[in-house]
Amino acid sequence: MPSGSVSQLLIRSFSIVLIDLVLAGDNALVIAMAVRTLPQRQRRIAITCGAAAAVVLRIVITIVAARLLSIEFLQLAGGALVIWIAVKVMTDAGSAPDETPVRGSLLQAIWLIVVADITMSVDNILAVAGAAKGSVSLIIFGLCVSIPFVVFASNLIATLMDRYPVIVYLGVAILGQVGAGMMLTDPFIRRTLHPSQTLTWAAEAVAIAAVLAGGKYLSGKRRDHGNMTI
Question: Which band of pLDDT confidence, cut at 50, 70 and 90, is reported for residue 96?
């Protein structure tokens, strides 16, 4: 193989790895939120299985990534899912320890991880596809490299949330912002509303406030219901 081809291969490989690491932060946060109520052992299983399954699907989707730009309602649904996860986490965080559903569903957490990761990864998928320039082997290499980082980051975030509950509120706010941003970048929304940067910021602020307030309200209703059943 000519030296020029080798250098181009190394540059593309490095670019793909860097793209994956830079854009995987939001995904790691969503995964950590999705598994927060699981026991430690199930948490590790859900993170590993969910991240691996999501990467396999991303490999398939990345190969046909150009079509993602024309899929309407994909990011709209993904943003709504991320906001729903944020509200759910906020509701659990506002409940008393014995009211929180500690024994969450392992399969449900894996499903949430896969769906949220795929819908949140459109920018990642398109960036990787562009950097790989059609090379399937480079696509697979880059996405597989991201698995250890996402698994480690998700476990670390989930552990820190257990130790420092204030991080939960920060994470919920970030998810609200990410979810609103995803919804406003959906092709259908862009075509019909043409959201400006000011409107995007306003929508993200409203989403953050709604998630925090909605989660607090639902956790209060849960406490009231628990007191009534005692």
Answer: very low
What is the dihedral angle through the alpha carbons of 221, 222, 228, 230, rounded to the nearest 10 degrees? -160
> pLDDT digit string (tens) for 170-224?
888 888 888 898 889 888 898 899 999 999 999 999 999 999 998 888 877 766 6
Q: What are phi and psi of 193, to 5 degrees?
A: -105, -25
| 30 close to 85: Cβ distance less than 8 angstroms | yes
* Cα–Cα distance, 216 to 210 (Å, whole number): 10
Q: pTM for this one?
A: 0.66
How far is it, in rounded angstroms, from Cα 140 to Cα 162? 34
